[in-house]
UniProtKB/TrEMBL annotation:
Organism: Onishia taeanensis
PANTHER family referenced in this protein's UniProt entry, alphabetically: 3-OXOACYL-(ACYL-CARRIER-PROTEIN) REDUCTASE, 3-OXOACYL-[ACYL-CARRIER-PROTEIN] REDUCTASE FABG
Pfam families: adh_short
Residue ranges constituting the Ketoreductase domain according to the UniProt record: 6-186
Gene3D superfamilies given in the database record: NAD(P)-binding Rossmann-like Domain
InterPro entries, A to Z: Acetoacetyl-CoA_reductase, KR_dom, NAD(P)-bd_dom_sf, Sc_DH/Rdtase_CS, SDR, SDR_fam
Alphabetized UniProt keyword annotations: Oxidoreductase
Single GO MF annotation: acetoacetyl-CoA reductase activity
Family under the similarity heading: Belongs to the short-chain dehydrogenases/reductases (SDR) family.
GO CC annotation: cytoplasm
Name of this chain's protein: 3-oxoacyl-[acyl-carrier-protein] reductase
A single BP term in Gene Ontology: monocarboxylic acid metabolic process
Length: 248
């Protein structure tokens, strides 16, 4: 039986930024469904959320690179909780390396996980949103999709591509009560940036005008804002949250 609370599906929900987004949306009263990749990690993650009093967060473990799995995942969410009214595309990976050293697999893995997944999820929820005349889609891109980054031809291409999808889908859905926006975080203190060699990472931090990394919570509060019913005039936009590192 469908739950009365509006449903928010957060892909990459168990990750560094995703966790903060799930918790922030849960605090706003959404029934949150967190996407995950690693079942063992997800089980523990859910137990942690429940221990913190979040009883309106659930899990959905579809392979986002597989369209049919996404459709099946959304069908299951609809049956359990109701149609998805907020979709946050937060799943993403890095496979950094300079072009001269990058294997084709590094390119395809990142494009599949970070960009093709966004088509798969948006396509899976859009018909419900159109039918209900309401929806909020927030695509979590990156500062590096805006400015490029040494060692990230794959990641920057995927993240820039996300915003092309955002602007196009925003135009297609503008008269249907649906907004589609991109949020471009800078360097946020999560496990993902800990993979950057320490020397390189320190140089990046020094280059951020506010002289620190962002926090996942600083991204989550902007997601809550864009997901709000009252934010209906914001569509096709990109919001940079990067401590002043890139002002485009
Ligand atoms: N600008 C200019 N030159 C650079 C450079 C830079 N930013 N970084 C490295 N170089 C130079 C090195 O000094 C070296 O020069 P020499 O050959 O003259 O000695 C050369 O480039 C190294 O080239 P290699 O192909 O050998 O590179 P590598 O194998 O040593 O590693 C790298 C390159 C993997 C890209 C490494 O520099 C790296 O991890 N950089 C960080 C990339 C990054 O910022 N990733 C972001 C991850 S977080 C994220 O993506 C989240 C988000 O959205 C913000």
């Amino acid at each position: 039986m469908a739950n009365a609370a509006p449903v928010a599906w957060v892909t990459g929900g168990t990750g560094g930024i995703g966790s903060a987004i799930c918790r922030a949306l849960a605090k706003e009263g959404y029934q949150v469904v967190a996407g995950y990749h690693n079942p063992e990690k997800a089980k523990q993650w859910l137990a942690d959320q429940q221990a913190d009093g979040f009883d309106n967060i659930a899990l959905s473990g579809v392979d986002l690179t597989n369209y049919d799995e996404c459709v099946a995942g959304v069908t299951e969410i609809r049956e359990k909780y109701g149609p998805v009214s907020v979709l946050v595309n937060c799943a993403g990976i890095t496979r950094d390396g300079t072009m001269k050293k990058m294997a084709p697999e590094q390119w395809h893995e990142v494009i599949d996980t970070n960009l093709n997944s966004v088509f798969n999820t948006c396509r899976s929820v859009i018909e419900d949103m159109l039918e209900h005349g309401y929806g909020r889609i927030v695509n979590i891109s990156s500062i590096n999709g805006r400015k490029g980054q040494f060692g990230q031809v794959n990641y920057a291409a995927a993240k820039a591509g996300m915003h092309g999808l955002t602007m196009s889908l925003a135009q297609e859905t503008a008269t249907k009560g649906i907004t589609v926006n991109t949020l471009s975080p800078g360097y946020i203190a999560t496990d993902m940036i800990m993979k950057i060699p320490e020397k390189v990472r320190e140089a990046i931090r020094e280059g951020i005008p506010v002289k620190r990394y962002g926090t996942p919570e600083e991204i989550a509060r902007a997601v809550v804002f864009l997901a709000d019913k009252e934010s209906g005039f914001i569509t096709g936009a990109n919001l940079d949250i990067n401590g002043g590192q890139f002002m485009g």
